[in-house]
Amino acid sequence: MTDNILAPDVSPPRMADVARLAGVSKMTVSRVLAGRSVSEKTRKRVQEAIERLGYLPDASAGTLSSGRSEFIVALVPSLNSSNFADTVRGLNDCIQGQGLRLLLGDTDYHPEQEALLVRTLLRHRPLGVMLTGSAHLDVTRKLLLQSKVPVVETWDVPDEPIEQSVGFSNAEAASALVRYLHGCGYQRIGFIGGASALDHRGLQRREGYLRALSELNLDSRVVDHGQSPITMSHGGEAISRLLEQWPDTDAVMCVSDLSAFGAIMHCHRQGLSVPDDIAIAGFGDFEVSRHCTPTITTVSVDPYRIGWRAGEMLLASAAAQRAGMPKPREVSIVDYQILARESTAPPAAGRNTPTV
After folding, report:
1. What is the DSSP string of 189-233?
2. Cα–Cα distance for residue pair 255/209, rounded to 1 Å
3. What is the average pLDDT across 166-187?
4. Full set of structural domains in the chain with CATH
5. What is the pLDDT of residues 41-87, one digit of tens each?
6. Whole-model pTM?
7. Looking at the chain, which runs of residues are DSSP E strands?
């Protein structure tokens, strides 16, 4: 859906603004930025002015006489994730036709690392920035807003987007998966996720699980284990802990397909049959979910489409800027679907399906 228009852009802070706020000359600001000799008192005053204004030294001014760079910045939390890799591939395929290239950064799920990458890469005056998720430090939001560079947040539906976003509700998708499991007759449904507060999408999936169980009047069974990114080994260890505490669990929702694969392998080693003894579902439709034995029931979202759509939105915003028009503000919602596979048995398996 598209609505609302951002206020007309104003110029980002310049070196002259820093000099004026610090009470020094532009040459002194330049010396501070170059690491040359100035008094400590002056250096501190200039640095404080830079921080207050959110000023970004232009690291590529010599290449920008046309006023347009050749780069789009993409920041993802993990380069090991096939979903994030496919998102980047979609973005890259979209912008390549315009003669643009990617500057790619891995935040490792740390907001401080994201802020550092944003500060560094904005110095190259990119044409646009694609972020993953909507949880950012205040300094990151400030830098992006003051830079006036088009921004698209992905894989989420932010309550207060920086500018534009393309994604889906992880909480709603998780709730839908729980309702699917319940509809198959499962009553004692557990959840295994990570223990890190940095994986906001994982926390949203946990929230969706809890919300659905509350609506269904079922008791929750949650194990939070492992730091982001969650791996197969985390899944195996987590389901072991869950079954120790709740041995009668008949189904488990995992925060990702990698976690689900690890959980299934643990069940195999313990002589448990999936789904006859316990059903296991994942999230993300990773390649491993399609080739595991049994294949894994999961939530599917098209990561390539997310990246391509982000590219379209960034290009449209950049075109509006060049035309002297306000940048559009758009929230693009992508579809998700529950893919029922072998790791969860359908109602015909003999369980009594409750009335929802």
Report:
1. EEEEE-S-TT-HHHHHHHHHHHHHHHHTT----EEE--PSSP-HH
2. 10
3. 97
4. 1-55 (1.10.260.40), 170-301+339-349 (3.40.50.2300)
5. 999 999 999 988 888 876 554 444 444 568 999 999 998 888 999 99
6. 0.79
7. 2-5, 71-76, 101-106, 128-132, 151-154, 164-167, 189-193, 222-224, 251-254, 279-281, 298-301, 328-333, 336-339
